[in-house]
Amino acid sequence: MKEGSRKINGKTPFERKWGISAKEFAAQEGVSTEAIHMRVRNYGTIYQRKAKPTEIERKYGKTIFELGKELKLHPMSIVMREYHYGDVYRESETKPSPVRGKHIKPLDQQKWRKHYKDKFWLHENHPDYAQARKGEYNA
What is the average pLDDT score of the chain? Predict the structure, then answer.
């Protein structure tokens, strides 16, 4: 606990404000307690994970990995569909070149750990979570 802060009725100032201790919330999120305190410092709430959503999160209300699981595609294929066609649900009209092999690979969780652990930019308890998941929230 920081200097200058004290427990009142067995609760720290953080617990009084958020209703849960920083240590417990950090364990739920899988991050350090310092990361939780930095969220409060940077964003003013413990429920916001990033400053802004990615373009794909803003448009579809899902992370790249969630879309990859849904469409059974590699996360990079999701990004390339968005880049080339402007829609991740659109199929390619051309067949892949036999020389290059398949241009769309199946999702492999071991190779794409970075996206596998990727969480949506807002926590489920954030007041605007439902709106952001629908793709209607403008941050």
Answer: 78
